From TrEMBL:
It comes from Thermoflavifilum aggregans. The chain crosses the membrane at residues 21-40, 178-202, 229-254, 260-280, 292-311, 350-369. Residues 146-372 form the ABC transmembrane type-2 domain. GO terms for cellular component: plasma membrane. The keyword GTP-binding does not apply. This is ABC-2 type transport system permease protein.
Length: 373
């Protein structure tokens, strides 16, 4: 224990002596957690729309007013030529074209029907899909308003009516920041811990001190613990700052679940993650190699962790890869505890899986370190 104490003291001094690494560990994650949730929003607004109105009737003006007043669309072009409106899409100045045909009001009054034409710029698939759905919903609501004006409401409605009441659990106002902040916090802790652990050990190889350590009476497990424990502590601090300082004070997110349970899972997760960083360092000879390999896996963690897209919507092969990532399970656990208030019984399988990750990654890293050194 005395040897381990000196190693830990040496590691902490080495970390805090480097003035450039401290902002990377503490300041950068906080700034990212302040900015990223504001951009990671599933709701699309300010969709640029061009309207081609061939009718110029009160009904068409009412429809246009309803679209612009919705808050989702921004009218950028209004004319009577579809070709001119299409040029707006070609010049990336418009996202959607709505063409109102001649006789729009007359056909609605006389024939009780009328067709509208919608053209959507589908280069941005998400924006096109949501923009088209928003516009269809507005037109449908406008159609219902017209039907209510024309069809008198009977005093007694003899047809059965089904009333639907929607209640959103755990996030009543559908605030995407409440959903995104815990997941982004997990990714930031993942990046800091993995990068710092992998680069720290590889740095010992580059400057040549790893050979000096290997010829000392220090045992392998003491050296490895001396490298992992400081970054385990730093990971806990970064998560705590993000959860209590940024998530609570800035975004107003208060955990409804047991924080002790959350930190127990975090402790195991960091052990698994640091074992992964140690494993990378056993293969890499330079810091550049370690950064490249770590960046490769971090990108997979970000895009295939279920943070931005649902795992159920992935192809089968991608779903299997996502389930092989420890980040996927921790994002699920953080959201379950912080937003849902889940108990240990609901996440016990996640605990077992993460313990398996920790044993496998650290065991493989130690075995490979002995083999290569």
């Amino acid at each position: 224990m005395r040897t381990l104490k000196f190693l830990l003291e040496k590691e902490f001094r080495q970390i805090f002596r480097n003035k450039s690494i401290l902002p990377l560990i503490f300041v950068v994650p906080i700034v990212q957690l302040l900015i990223l949730p504001l951009a990671a929003d599933y709701e699309v607004k300010n969709i640029k729309i061009s309207i081609v109105d061939h009718d110029h009737s009160p009904y068409s003006q009412q429809l246009i007013s309803k679209i612009t007043a919705s808050g989702y669309f921004k009218l950028v072009d209004y004319n009577s030529s579809f070709n001119e409106a299409f040029k707006q899409i070609e010049n990336n100045k418009s996202d959607i074209i709505l063409e109102i045909p001649d006789g729009f009001e007359r056909n609605l009054v006389r024939k009780n029907e009328q067709k509208l034409f919608i053209a959507v710029n589908a280069i941005n698939g998400v924006k096109a899909s949501l923009g088209g759905k928003y516009l269809n919903q507005i037109i449908s609501a406008y159609n219902e308003d017209i039907r209510l004006q024309w069809i008198p409401v009977n005093k007694f409605n003899t047809s059965p009516i089904i009333s639907i009441t929607v209640s959103n659990w755990f996030n009543p106002f559908m605030n995407y920041q409440i959903f995104m902040v815990p997941g982004i916090l997990v990714l930031l802790v993942t990046m800091v811990s993995t990068y710092m652990c992998a680069l720290n050990i590889v740095k010992e190889k580059e400057i040549g001190t790893i050979e000096q350590i290997n010829v000392t009476p220090i045992k392998k497990y003491q050296f490895i613990l001396g490298k992992l424990i400081p970054f385990w502590v730093i990971g806990m601090l970064v998560f705590s700052v993000g959860l209590f300082l940024v998530a609570r004070l800035v975004y107003g997110i208060v955990s409804v679940g047991n924080l002790f349970l959350l930190y127990c899972y975090l402790a195991i997760y960091l052990v698994a993650l640091l074992g992964f960083g140690l494993l990378i360092s056993t293969f890499a000879s330079t810091q550049q190699q370690a950064m490249s390999v770590t960046f490769f896996f971090v990108m997979i963690f970000i895009l295939m962790s279920g943070l931005f897209t649902s795992l159920d919507g992935m192809p089968r092969w991608a779903y299997i890869i996502a389930k092989c990532s420890p980040v996927t399970y921790f994002i699920e656990v953080v959201r379950m505890i912080v937003l849902k208030g889940s108990s240990f019984a609901e996440i016990k399988n996640h605990f077992l899986i993460m313990i398996g990750f920790a044993l496998f990654l650290n065991g493989l890293a130690v075995w490979n370190y002995k083999k290569t050194n």
